[in-house]
Every structure is written in C-alpha cells, then in structure tokens.
C-alpha cells in the first residue's frame, strides 16, 4: 500500500483528493492545524501548524508521495499577514521537500496557480514564461518562489507542479471568484466587466481538478501541468448563466480597461491526467446548496 502525506486536506481540493486516494487504496496522512479539523473518514491526522515551529517527530517515518495543497488563508492580506503567507506558502514547501528527501519520497506534487502566467489574449500552455517575479504580487510571488525551489529537487524524486485555473465547487469559500459572482448576481450587485464581456477563463470543477491531482500521483516523470475546465467563458457569460438560473437580470458596469484573459491550455492535462467534463451549467444547483 502506498503512503501519501497531504497538506490542505480539509480544503476544497484536499477533501475530494483524500476521498479519491482512499478509494484507490492509499494510506493517507494529513497535516492539520489541530485535532478538531474535519477530515474524510479514514485519513490519519498529523497535528502540526505549518505557520509555526515544526515538530517532525509527529511526521510519518515513511512516505511515498507528498501532495502539497495547503496555502495561507491570508493571501489577500498583504502586508499585514505577509509572514504567515511566507511560512505556509514558501517555508513549509522547503521543509516538506527536505523531509521528503530524507524519508525517500518518490514524488512531490505541488499546487501552484495559473495566475503565474499573468493575463493575455491566448491560452497559456506550460511552456509559456511566467510573469516577471517583481510583477506577480505577494501571493503569486510565493507560488513562483516555491516552483523555483521545487525544481531543484527533481534529481532526487519526481516533482509535479500543477497550475489550477479557478477551481470551484461545493464547500468552497464564498469569497472566491465563482461563488462570489453567483452571490453578486443573486443580490443584484453590479458586476464590473473589462470591455463589453469581461475577461475569459476556463474554470474547473473540483471533481475534475481533484481527479487530475490524484492521477498525477501515477506519473513517472517530473512535469508542469495546467489544471483547467473544458469550456472557455467570459465573465458576462458566467453571470448570464447564473442570472438565467436564478431568474434575475445581472447588472453590469463596464470599465475602460482592455480585456485580458486568463485561460489555461489543457492539452497536457487531458493527455497525462484527466479529461475534464463538468461544465459550469452542470453544477448550478451546488451554488444554491452552498449559498450563505
């Protein structure tokens, strides 16, 4: 039985990934901040705060795979919580790489962000250069920094860097983009669009994203892979879909900013990991169940 250590196991993707990993026969350990953290039944908790001092005595002595999904909840709070973001997004990555090297892991999987490409007209494939680090901002800069550190370990074990584009689904924090748009449409709050239709993106349902993440555990080589959905939608198309479902007319305001998209090319994802199939219109009922 393969043993896997997961961070961020109580988060949106972590919850689904743990379920899938258990179904596939993995022995799943999860680093959690405290014992009251809600985990999928069958996951073994490893109590440790990634933003605090580390006690490696509580860590498993043997791990085959590390799936690093955790990120600071304070990613929007710069500079007030810059230290927390550094410790969780960067320092914990280095510590996990070091730990993995010492216990003989075969694979290290890290979730970065599609945002490291910046915005542009074309769909970004994995060979496209990322935004210069000085222009990324604190959160995306932390992702780029971790990516750089991770590549240095590729001579010791496989390193898989996944770049998700706008994951959405049940249990998601309501402040994230897709559920936030749903609430704004329902409340009659104005939606600010770049140009007439807003930016285009291809959001990915958590079910598709998690299946791709779990499948990456089987890759036999290092790789960088985008994780995104099967359809490209403008912000206006997303909000129109929500409006039709809710029976309300979305309110739009246009800005003078030029339209600049954030679309992930998913050819590599489809060939190596998983072919996403869930469209936004397939999951509208989930937003009602999740609405607060």
Give me the CATH superfamily of the domain at 3-165 and 206-227.
Answer: NAD(P)-binding Rossmann-like Domain
> Fraction of residues in helices?
25-40%
Q: What are the low-pLDDT stretches, counting only 5+ consecutive residues below 50?
A: none
How confident is the prediction overall: mean pLDDT? Answer: 93
Please list the strands of the largest sheet in the order they lie side by side.
3-2-1-4-5-6-11
Order of helix and strand elements from N to C terminus: EHEEEHEHEEHEEEHEEHEHH
CATH level 3 topology of the domain at 3-165 and 206-227:
Rossmann fold
Secondary structure: elements and pairs:
Blueprint: E1 3-7, H1 12-23, E2 27-32, E3 44-47, E4 65-68, H2 82-103, E5 107-111, H3 138-151, E6 158-164, E7 167-168, H4 177-187, E8 191-194, E9 200-201, E10 204-205, H5 206-215, E11 223-227, E12 233-234, H6 235-246, E13 252-255, H7 267-272, H8 284-290
Parallel strand pairs: 1-2, 1-4, 2-3, 4-5, 5-6, 6-11, 7-10, 8-13
Antiparallel strand pairs: 9-12
Helix pairs in contact: 1-5, 2-3, 4-6
């Amino acid at each position: 039985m393969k043993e896997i250590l997961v961070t961020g196991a109580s988060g949106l993707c972590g919850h689904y990934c743990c379920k899938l990993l258990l179904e596939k026969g993995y022995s799943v350990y999860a680093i959690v901040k405290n014992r009251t953290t809600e985990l999928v039944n069958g996951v073994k908790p490893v109590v440790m705060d990634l933003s605090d001092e580390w006690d490696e005595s509580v860590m498993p002595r043997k791990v085959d795979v590390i799936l690093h999904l955790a990120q600071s909840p304070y990613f929007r709070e710069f500079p007030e919580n810059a230290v927390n973001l550094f410790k969780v997004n960067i320092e914990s990555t280095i510590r996990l790489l070091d730990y993995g090297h010492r216990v003989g892991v075969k694979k290290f999987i890290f979730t970065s962000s599609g945002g490291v490409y910046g915005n542009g007209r074309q769909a970004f494939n994995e060979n496209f250069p990322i935004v210069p680090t000085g222009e990324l901002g604190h959160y995306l800069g932390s992702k780029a920094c971790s990516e750089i550190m991770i590549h240095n370990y590729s001579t010791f074990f496989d390193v898989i860097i996944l770049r998700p584009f706008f994951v959405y689904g049940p249990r998601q924090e309501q402040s994230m983009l897709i559920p936030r748009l749903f609430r704004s449409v329902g409340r009659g709050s104005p939606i600010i669009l770049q140009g007439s239709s807003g930016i285009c993106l291809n959001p990915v349902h958590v079910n598709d994203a998690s299946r791709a993440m779990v499948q990456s555990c089987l890759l036999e080589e290092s790789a960088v892979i985008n994780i995104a959905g099967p359809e490209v939608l403008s912000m206006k198309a997303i909000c129109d879909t929500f409006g039709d479902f809710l029976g309300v007319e979305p309110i739009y305001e246009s800005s003078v900013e030029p339209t600049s998209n954030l679309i992930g090319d998913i050819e590599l994802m489809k060939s190596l990991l998983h072919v996403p199939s869930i469209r936004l219109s397939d999951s509208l009922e989930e937003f009602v169940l999740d609405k607060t």
